[in-house]
């Protein structure tokens, strides 16, 4: 089969044997796959959890049809349409532990849409509902809201009944579209007065929950934008993986600062999370209340070009790689 892997200097295609599923895995004929920023780290040879380096299968998210199931799998059967995460999705076939798969929520949903959802749904539910305890009536800010997961975070905030949702983007054309995905207010995080604007919109208190995709130099201003006793959940570090941290400000505002990743989760964790996600989101997905825009569709053999598009950061929403049925 044709598959994208990390070569000596970047993404290359190789002819590999079709993988065989282990007892708890499913083998999927990939119909579409979508890009996430973590894919760029693997393309660059960096580690992502335990994976990384030359020869690493590329592609963390995909959709397709189950063509073989491991001996211990009872949740899926051959012919089922699934949305998966793992390694090796930029290929004609890929395997995933069954607990890292979701059934399609709607029989009418296409493969390209399905390829975009599993990471965003799992991430936002775990970060916002399970870790940060988002409840109806609370106020939410999404710092760095124009990525795929950021756009889903805006919608999830509304889904769980947030009374005010603020999103940020540094590009005016993206800010203009945030309201389509649930933002009541759109701000520019490069504006030195963005914290003041948040406080003005929250009667001087700040938001209950700040969902952080930027980190780095934004952490202290983020704490100023959160109310006393509020929460920050860090999902991404697009602005930097380190920065100056005002510990006194953190203590004064009694902020809960929560870390979020799946790289240290077990497959058992994934199974529990999958149940929560389907319970809370599947009805909304069937009604079209949660969605992600697809900015670009490219065939699988243009995966390197797709990665450069993501690196250039000119897209809004998701970039998808497609394969013929």
From TrEMBL:
Gene3D superfamilies named among the record's database cross-references: Medium-chain alcohol dehydrogenases, catalytic domain (3.90.180.10), NAD(P)-binding Rossmann-like Domain (3.40.50.720)
- Classification lineage: Bacteria, Pseudomonadati, Pseudomonadota, Betaproteobacteria, Burkholderiales
Q: What is this protein called?
A: Quinone oxidoreductase
Supply the source organism for this entry: Cupriavidus necator
For the keyword NADP, the answer is: yes
Keyword tags: NADP, Oxidoreductase
What residues does the Enoyl reductase (ER) domain cover? 7-321
Q: Which InterPro entries match?
A: ADH-like_C, ADH-like_N, ER, GroES-like_sf, NAD(P)-bd_dom_sf
Superkingdom of origin:
Bacteria
Q: Name one GO molecular function term.
A: NADPH binding
- Which Pfam families does the annotation name? ADH_N, ADH_zinc_N
């Amino acid at each position: 089969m044709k598959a994208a892997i990390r070569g000596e200097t970047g993404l290359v295609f190789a002819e590999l044997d079709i993988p065989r599923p282990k007892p708890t895995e499913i083998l999927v004929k990939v119909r579409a796959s979508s890009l996430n920023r973590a894919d760029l780290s693997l393309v660059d040879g960096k580690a992502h959890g335990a994976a990384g380096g030359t020869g690493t299968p590329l592609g963390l998210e995909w959709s397709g049809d189950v063509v073989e199931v491991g001996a211990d799998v009872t949740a899926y059967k051959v012919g089922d349409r699934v949305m998966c995460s793992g390694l090796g999705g930029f290929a004609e076939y890929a395997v995933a532990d069954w607990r890292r798969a979701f059934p399609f929520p709607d029989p009418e949903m296409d493969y390209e849409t399905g390829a975009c959802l599993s990471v965003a749904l799992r991430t936002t539910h775990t970060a916002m509902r399970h870790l940060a305890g988002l409840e109806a009536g609370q106020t939410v800010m999404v710092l760095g809201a124009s990525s795929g997961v950021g756009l889903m975070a805006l919608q999830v905030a509304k889904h769980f009944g947030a009374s005010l949702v603020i999103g940020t983007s540094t590009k005016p054309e993206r800010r203009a579209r945030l309201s389509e995905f649930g933002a009541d207010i759109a701000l520019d995080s490069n504006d030195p007065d963005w914290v003041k604007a948040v406080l003005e919109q929250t009667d001087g208190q700040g938001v209950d929950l700040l969902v952080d995709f930027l980190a780095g130099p934004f952490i202290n201003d983020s704490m100023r934008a959160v109310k006393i006793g509020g929460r920050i959940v860090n999902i991404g570090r697009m602005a930097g993986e380190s920065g100056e941290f005002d510990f006194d400000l953190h203590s004064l505002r009694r902020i809960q600062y929560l870390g979020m990743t799946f790289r240290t989760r077990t497959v058992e964790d994934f199974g529990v999370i999958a149940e929560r996600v389907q319970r809370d989101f599947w009805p909304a997905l069937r009604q079209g209340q949660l969605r992600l825009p697809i900015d670009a569709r490219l065939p699988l053999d243009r995966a390197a070009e797709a990665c450069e598009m993501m690196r250039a950061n000119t897209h809004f929403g998701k970039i998808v790689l497609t394969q013929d049925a």
